[in-house]
Design a protein that fits this description.
CATH topology of the largest domain: Alpha-Beta Plaits
Strand order of the largest sheet: 3-1-2-11
Helix content: 40-55%
Shape: globular
Strand content: 15-25%
Oligomer: single chain
Order of helices and strands: HHHHEEHEEEEHEEHEEHEEH
Radius of gyration: 18 Å
Number of strands: 12
Number of helices: 9
Largest sheet: 4 strands, antiparallel
Structural class: alpha+beta
Number of domains: 3
Length: 256
């Protein structure tokens, strides 16, 4: 789930190491395979593949799984599936906008899974374009603050990447998020590396133009049920929202 709440970001990070690790691995491997199919199997000449591999490794996906995905995608073993990217849209509690990105080899299965996850958990499907119009594609590079004992600041990251024209640097607690035009994400990542800084991920995501605040713990719990159900689908790669979780609600959720 992507949103602007620090608490929501923390929840998402925890989800990476929870019982859904197997599904996460499958989605990261699929990203590697698709990147190899689109741009070739050589990471040196395919920045999208390079970053997909980096993200998979950061999430502890075994190297053998990554290597097999590259071979499938590049056609080296002839076993790859043909995946399509499909976007679906929904509204959750309090009118929170939900943008659902699927990577699937079966569109009928994907829309069926999405519709069930949405409607059975109290959300509603939205007309095409009604949600997506409030989202824009952005390049996002995540840099950990702790770099082998050295603490990196927003100013450090901004100075290192200034020639790559970042739009913003956001403090997320343990990490710094560099926001850029999507066409600049590789340049930003390369600038980070040139400054001898490690990075967690570099990819293009959807970000909302404005946030929608929740007004109760109940709304938050309902929204998370929708998102969890969506992320359980093998075809759903990413779920983006414009949710804002006020501090008082976040505190109550943490207590529970």
């Amino acid at each position: 789930m992507a949103g602007h709440s620090k608490w929501a970001t923390t929840k998402h990070k925890k989800a990476v190491i929870d019982a859904k690790r197997g599904k996460l691995f499958a989605k990261l491997v699929k990203n590697v395979e698709v990147a190899a199919r689109i741009g070739g199997g050589d990471p040196a000449g395919n920045p999208t593949l390079y970053d997909a591999i980096q993200k998979a490794k950061k999430s502890s996906v075994p190297n053998d799984n990554i290597d097999r995905a590259v071979k499938r995608g590049s056609g080296a073993d002839g076993e790859g599936a043909n995946y399509d990217t499909v976007m679906y849209e929904a509204y959750g509690p309090a009118g929170v906008a939900i943008l659902i990105e699927c990577l699937t080899d079966n569109r009928n299965r994907a829309i069926s899974d999405v519709r069930v996850a949405v409607t059975r958990n109290g959300a509603t499907m939205a007309d095409g374009g009604s949600v997506q119009r409030i989202f824009a594609r952005k390049g996002i590079v995540i840099v950990p603050k702790d770099q082998d004992g050295r603490q990196v600041s927003e100013d450090d990251v901004l100075e290192a990447t200034i020639d790559a024209e970042p739009e913003d640097v956001i403090d997320l607690g343990d990490t710094l998020e560099i926001v850029s035009d999507p066409a600049q994400v590789v340049a930003v990542r390369q600038a980070v590396q040139a400054a001898n800084l490690d990075y967690d991920s570099a990819e293009v995501e959807f970000r909302a133009d404005f946030d929608q605040p929740l007004t109760s713990v109940d709304e938050a719990q309902k929204l998370f049920r929708v998102i969890d159900a969506l992320e359980d689908s093998d075809d759903v790669q990413n779920v983006y929202t414009n949710v804002d979780i006020p501090e008082d609600i976040a505190s109550q959720l943490e207590e529970e």
